[in-house]
Amino acid sequence: MEANPRSTGRLPAAFLTPGSSSFVDFLGEHQPDMLPANRQLPPVKGAFEAPHGTTIVAVTFPGGVVLAGDRRATMGNMIASRDMEKVFPADEYSAVGIAGTAGLAVEMVKLFQLELEHFEKVEGAQLSLEGKANRLSTMIRSNLAMAMQGLAVVPLFAGFDLDRERGRIFSYDVTGGRTEEQGFAATGSGSIFARGALKKLFHDGLSEQDATTLVVQALYDAADDDSATGGPDVARRIYPIVTVITDEGFRRLSEEESSAIARAVVEHRLERPDGPRAALL
């Protein structure tokens, strides 16, 4: 499929032949070396550290779902980045938050975005949310060889299901195993602490504003106990990425909106460092 300077300008036959609606399958057939899982890792002597993304959280509310992530990337005991982007739109009604090996994770998200776009162009219709979750599962499974060498990618997938008219969340393990989460979910190094906060503060009647505040509270708790998770950085004006997906589509909160929520959380933490209390009964 390489360019030929003497050609008439027509696309190679591979691009004009009807085939699978999966771009990953197309790439695997015609240019398999471009797939991340097929690349050969160079020999490395001694310990090797790659930048890792950390904590992602998601919460459903009656009108949709909120997906958010902190901004820190680590490399061993060092902070590799303070303002990493970890939450991306997959298409108009879904989004992916990444944890794990940063470079591979971002590349996988871009490939997933292309996969959904390719399907829509070939089939003339969008995949169902369930179908999107299954496609992502297949892509994670194809990365298993690299995951076994320490280069794992563990995303969180969320979207608005147009058929069921509600927000849904899917979590994954390194083998591509997929689980639908009810109400809330977290992944990454600080997920155990974020999940604890979500478990105590989540309830079915959350408004969109409540849900966006809850994910920031959970990320704050994760950063409080996990050194790899970055909390709101008021001095540098670096705040969590917060996205909302409803029947109107994907929307990322503006810098002003996310900073207002983060500053309110930080201000209340000055009075109550451990955060809001859940009722005992």
From TrEMBL:
What Pfam families is this protein classified in? Proteasome
Q: How is its activity regulated?
A: The formation of the proteasomal ATPase ARC-20S proteasome complex, likely via the docking of the C-termini of ARC into the intersubunit pockets in the alpha-rings, may trigger opening of the gate for substrate entry. Interconversion between the open-gate and close-gate conformations leads to a dynamic regulation of the 20S proteasome proteolysis activity.
| Any GO BP | modification-dependent protein catabolic process
Q: What class of enzyme is it?
A: hydrolase
Q: Where in the cell is it found?
A: Cytoplasm
GO MF annotations for this entry? Answer: threonine-type endopeptidase activity
Specify where it is mainly localized: cytoplasm
Asked if the keyword Hydrolase belongs to this entry, the reply reads yes
As recorded in UniProt, coiled-coil segments are: none
Highest taxon, organism lineage: Bacteria
Proregion span(s): 1-53
User: Which pathway does this chain act in?
Assistant: Protein degradation; proteasomal Pup-dependent pathway
Keywords from UniProt, A to Z, are: Autocatalytic cleavage, Cytoplasm, Hydrolase, Protease, Proteasome, Threonine protease, Zymogen
Cellular component GO terms held in the UniProt record = cytoplasm; proteasome core complex, beta-subunit complex
Q: Which reaction does it catalyse?
A: Cleavage of peptide bonds with very broad specificity
Give the E.C. number(s). 3.4.25.1
Q: Where is the active site?
A: 54
Family, according to the entry, reads as follows: Belongs to the peptidase T1B family.
Assembly mode:
The 20S proteasome core is composed of 14 alpha and 14 beta subunits that assemble into four stacked heptameric rings, resulting in a barrel-shaped structure. The two inner rings, each composed of seven catalytic beta subunits, are sandwiched by two outer rings, each composed of seven alpha subunits. The catalytic chamber with the active sites is on the inside of the barrel. Has a gated structure, the ends of the cylinder being occluded by the N-termini of the alpha-subunits. Is capped by the proteasome-associated ATPase, ARC.
Give a short account of what the protein does.
Answer: Component of the proteasome core, a large protease complex with broad specificity involved in protein degradation.
Q: What is this protein called?
A: Proteasome subunit beta
This protein's species is Streptomyces mesophilus
The gene for this chain is prcB
